[in-house]
Structure formats: C-alpha cells, structure tokens
Amino acid sequence: MRKRYKQIPEGLYKRSNIGGLTLIELLVAVVVSSLAIGGLLKIYLANQKSATYLKQVSRMQQNLKMAADFINGGLPGAGYGLAVDSMRWGFEPADTGIQVRYVDEYGHYNCAGKVVTVRFAESGGYLFQIDSSECADNHAKKIMEVDTFFVTYFNQNGDTLTSYTARRDSTKSIVYTIRQASVQDHKRELTGRVAFPNF
C-alpha cells in the first residue's frame, strides 16, 4: 500500500520578515564597542597611576616623619652629663651633618652612665644615624633615602652661625631640612627645629 505524505502548507516556505544584521551594522557595533572599552581602559589606567602616585607620596611622608623622630630623639640630649669645659667638644657641626655627645643615663644604647656619640649625616644619597659609645663600636643605621640633609645653626639671639668655631661654641638651636628624592617631579621636604637645653 502506498504511503501518503501530508502536504506542507505553502506559508512555511515563505521567507521570514525578520532580517539579520548587515556587515556595515556589525562593523559599526564593533567600532562603538571598541571606543567604549578604550575609554574605560583609559580611565582605569589613570586611576591606577593616581593611586600609585598617592601611595609613593604617602610613603615619602612617612619616611620623612620617621627621620624627624630619629633626629628629634637623638639630638636634644647633647651635652647632658658632660663637664662644662668638655661639653662643647662633644658638639661637631657641619652643613650636611651633626654630631653630639652626652651621658647615656638610662642605658638607651646599652651603655648606662657612659658617654655616647650620636651623629646624623648624609652620605651616598642616604641619611645615616651613626652611634658609638664607650661600650660599643660604631653602629651605622640607614634611616632613609634623601636628596639633601642640611643643618642651619643659631645662637641664643636667633642669629645664624656660619663659622665652625661659632657653631661649636655658641649654638643654642638648629633647623634641619630633609629633602627626599622626587616622585613624578614632586619633591617632599621636611624642616624641624631642635633646641639644646644643656648648652
């Protein structure tokens, strides 16, 4: 017996009215998407650069504050416990460094009751604290990377002292300036004052 097949309605053969995208439309979509992605990428990279810069500046500020803490903690004791006639000789002034001597009454340098020497100086682009005492050899501590470390000396009237002898014999206070290496052409500078009550 012969099989009969149903006739497919004529409407199913007709082309659908729903059209696809043309090549030009695809190219336009690709270009617009590329521009949008490029803009977002540019914003992202700018934010990354800004975040890196702020992080570096923050680190510079922390380093400067740490250096100031070292200096402010190490210098004010200058001359403490020394005989009056020897007090001045413990004070060694220079434009790019300063050295003081005093008796370590509380054993901060493991040398209680003995004379210690504390020196701050710039060398090779770094600020160093160099400690020595009657109990131990020199110990150099690298504090931070700097461009310059400069010291200005003043007498009790606030006059600037320029000669070595005047600085050694008449200094009542100093102003130190630390300038750190630049970050993206941005320099950081810190200035502090230290008085010497024992002089």
Task: Please describe what this structure looks like.
It is built from three helices and nine strands, in the order H-H-E-E-E-E-E-E-E-H-E-E. It has 199 residues and is α+β, with helices and mostly antiparallel strands. The protein has a five-stranded antiparallel sheet with strand order 1-2-3-4-5. A four-stranded antiparallel sheet has the order 7-6-8-9. Strand 3 (114-123) and strand 4 form a beta hairpin. The protein has a domain at 62-195. It has helices spanning 23-74, 84-87, 164-170, and strands at 92-94, 97-104, 114-123, 126-133, 139-145, 148-154, 160-161, 173-183, 186-195. The longest helix has 52 residues, at 23-74.
Separation of the first and last Cα atoms:
130 Å
Element order: H for helix, E for strand: HHEEEEEEEHEE
Report Rg: 36 Å
User: Main beta sheet, described?
Assistant: 5 strands, antiparallel
Brief description of this entry?
The chain is α+β, with helices and mostly antiparallel strands and about 200 residues long.
Descriptive key words:
five-stranded antiparallel beta sheet, alpha+beta, 3 helices, 199 residues
Annotate the secondary structure layout.
Blueprint: H1 23-74, H2 84-87, E1 92-94, E2 97-104, E3 114-123, E4 126-133, E5 139-145, E6 148-154, E7 160-161, H3 164-170, E8 173-183, E9 186-195
Antiparallel strand pairs: 1-2, 2-3, 3-4, 4-5, 6-7, 6-8, 8-9
